[in-house]
Design a protein that fits this description.
Helix content is 6%, strand content 47%. The chain is mainly beta. The radius of gyration is 17 Å and the shape is globular.
C-alpha cells in the first residue's frame, strides 16, 4: 500500500500481504454511525495491482432523532489490469435510523472487480424488523465513461412492507453481489442461501437471501474463491 490517509472514526489497519494480493481492513473506532455522521471513502487501485478491502465487523446505524441520519460516499477507481474485491461491513439499521449511501465505481475494460453488499432487516433478535425510517443505497459501476450497472435501493417501511415478495421475502438479510471480468458464474449449492443471477450491461449481478449476514458473507467468499 503506497499511500493511506484517514481521520477518526475511520481507521485503516496495517495491510496483510497475501500470496497474490494485498488485504486491507477499514475499521470504525466508534459504536456505529450516528445522526449527522458523514463518511467519505476513496479507494485507488493502481495498474496491475491486486487487492481486497474489507470491513471490520458490522456497520450499525443508530436512531436519527429527527435529523437526516447518516450519509456515506464511496469512490473506487480500479486501474488497468488490476483486481479489487470490495467487501464493506454488513449494515444493521437500528429502529428510527436513516441512512443514504452513494457509491461510484470506475473500472478499465481489463479490470476485475467483485462487490459484496449485505443489509439486515434490523436487530431481529430485539424485535426490530424493519423499524428503521429509511435506507437508501445507490451503486453505479462504470467501465471507462460507460455506465454498465446501476443498483438503486430505496426502503421506507412506512410506505411499503420490505418483507414482501421482491424484497426480503420473509428473510432477515439480503445481499448484492456484482462481478466484472469473471466470465461465467456458477452459483454454489447452499441450504441456507437463496441466490439468482442476471446479466448487467457488463458483468454479472447476483441477488441473495438468507437469515444471517455470516451465511451471505461465506457464500460470497466461496464464489470469490471459485472465481
Amino acid at each position: 500500500m503506497s499511500d493511506c490517509r484517514f481521520t477518526a472514526p475511520l481507521k485503516v489497519a496495517k495491510p496483510f500481504y497475501r500470496k497474490n494480493h494485498t488485504e486491507v481492513m477499514i475499521m470504525q473506532a466508534s459504536a456505529g454511525l450516528l445522526d449527522g455522521d458523514e463518511y467519505d471513502i476513496a479507494l485507488d487501485v493502481a495498474d496491475g495491482a491486486r487487492a481486497a478491502v474489507t470491513g471490520q465487523s458490522y456497520a450499525k446505524l443508530f436512531r436519527a432523532n429527527g435529523g437526516d441520519g447518516a450519509r456515506q460516499r464511496v469512490r473506487i477507481d480500479v486501474g488497468e489490469g488490476s483486481s479489487l474485491g470490495w467487501f464493506p461491513s454488513p449494515v444493521i439499521p437500528f429502529a428510527g435510523s436513516r441512512f443514504a449511501s452513494q457509491s461510484d465505481i470506475y473500472l478499465h475494460e481489463n479490470s476485475r472487480f467483485f462487490l459484496c453488499d449485505i443489509l439486515a432487516c434490523g436487530r431481529a433478535g430485539k424485535g426490530e424488523r424493519f423499524a428503521f425510517e429509511s435506507y437508501r443505497s445507490r451503486t453505479a459501476v462504470h467501465v471507462g465513461e460507460k455506465l454498465v450497472f446501476l443498483d438503486n435501493t430505496r426502503l421506507i417501511p412506512s410506505e411499503r412492507d420490505p418483507s414482501a415478495v421482491g424484497f426480503f421475502e420473509g428473510r432477515t438479510h439480503i445481499g448484492l453481489l456484482y462481478m466484472y471480468g469473471c466470465g461465467d458464474v456458477a452459483l454454489p449449492e447452499s441450504a441456507s442461501v437463496e441466490a439468482a443471477t442476471s446479466d448487467a450491461a457488463a458483468g454479472k449481478c447476483v441477488r441473495l437471501l438468507a437469515d444471517s449476514a455470516q451465511a451471505l458473507s461465506d457464500y460470497a467468499r466461496d464464489m470469490v474463491a471459485a472465481w
